[in-house]
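Closing statement on the glutathione sub-project.
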Amino acid sequence: MRLFGNAMSPYGRKVHVVIQEHGLADKVALVDVNPRQKPEAVIPVSALGKIPILVLDDGTAIKDSPIIAEYLDAEFGGSKLLPRTGLARWKALTRIADCDGIIEASILVRNERLRPEAQQSADFIAWNLDKVKRTMAELEAQAAGLDKNFDLGTIAVACVLGYVPRRLPEFEGLANSHPGLAALRQRLLQRPSIAATEPA
Ligand SMILES: N[C@@H](CCC(=O)N[C@@H](CS)C(=O)NCC(=O)O)C(=O)O
């Protein structure tokens, strides 16, 4: 299998954690791509041009990080990280959706801030930043129990905690603003798969 992605992608990190958890590194060759700078390296395997993409040996492309993570867990990990049925499954999938929403809104804020100042929309930034703030506050309220089970939902939270404080200055002081999440982040970093994939 080939995994198209890059080390900076918070979505891709979720897949890397699953690869570590199930000892799949020998089965997955990494193809380092930057879809914005070099879309032609990605578009032949996915017209959307988004990473991560897992290309199976028969050429089938599995797309979207939650689907790739579930594919690897179900096909190679005995579904240890995402039950096939039952409430725990739907809770984990909902957690993933919230975390992906945080990451998506954070990327929109960051990309807007990287535009020339005169072209930036303060409304657009505030609209998306509010999504991040509200959902981070919700996670903070639940932080003590978020690692009770370690599943794909927990992995998604770990990837949010590795990304948002690095990318949005509003969350740089996580220990002051979100002490529960800061403590959770440290607990999650005890797990080798999380520590090994933590961005530099
Ligand atoms: N829902 C997708 C989002 C993937 C995504 O947006 N990836 C970013 C990189 S972190 C990307 O490829 N951006 C390029 C683009 O949007 O064209 C997933 O979970 O895999």
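The chain is about 55% helix and 5% strand. With this model delivered, the sub-project is considered complete and its resources will be redirected to Aim 3.
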